[in-house]
Amino acid sequence: MDVVLDVDGVRSGYGATEVLTGLSLTVAESEVVCLLGPNGVGKTTLFRTVLGLLPLRDGRIRVDGRELTAFRRRELARTVAHVPQARATPFPFRVREVVLMGRTPHVGPARSPGRADERIAAQSLERLEIAHLADRPFTATSGGERQLVLVARALAQQPRLLMLDEPASDLDLGNQARLLRVVRELADDGMAALMVSHAPDHAFAVADTAAVLAPDGELATGTPVDVLTEDRLARVYGNPVRVLAGSTPDGRRLHSVVPVVARDR
């Protein structure tokens, strides 16, 4: 499989504070990488650096085999789509208009989206099973619905790499399953996906690779079963956990990570 994102020895941060101190990570086509770690270790910093929003202090980032610095903004947006955490907008765009904005990198300057763009946006809504929201104002949707709309907008970009920042944080269990299923299907179709999550269960459910970033900057990568061990998660998060295993009636393995909550006696 071709490597779509190659992060090699990257250093980045804010002002005098260096957050990433030599991080290396790859994401290949048809691969889902789930990035986990405590708050403040640099997961969002990595995203902002890959998106060109923070300067690269050292190291190299290649996207589809090209140096990140070689991309113009519009060209990068045709290759990489970012799904941020849902935020309300003061402008009452309809949901279909928000998703259609994902076609912006493919539309020429001073031109409007055409019928083909509208069709791609509609297909993105259908894939997330939210076509019924198409004419609703974005401001009138719930937090979970907004998150699904932002994922649909990213799909409309037709990227090679999909970067999702805690995409399931506002979703109920049913919508979490729907979102994770879509991410897995997109990877099976050839897309590369890098997903930040605070739920190790999500990595067990859909990821090919789990990447755990510790407070000291150490990054452990491998299959979820190999990386998401009780010892490692307890050490990284500073709290004991239990990894529970089971199976579905059709024989698929399931894993769930449960923090151990101490009780005063």
From TrEMBL:
GO terms for molecular function: ATP binding; ATP hydrolysis activity. The keyword Nucleotide-binding applies. Residues 5-240 form the ABC transporter domain. SUPFAM superfamilies: P-loop containing nucleoside triphosphate hydrolases. InterPro entries: AAA+_ATPase, ABC_transporter-like_ATP-bd, P-loop_NTPase. It comes from the Bacteria. Pfam families: ABC_tran. Keywords: ATP-binding, Nucleotide-binding, Translocase, Transport. This is Iron complex transport system ATP-binding protein. It comes from Pseudonocardia endophytica. The lineage of its organism: Bacteria, Bacillati, Actinomycetota, Actinomycetes, Pseudonocardiales.
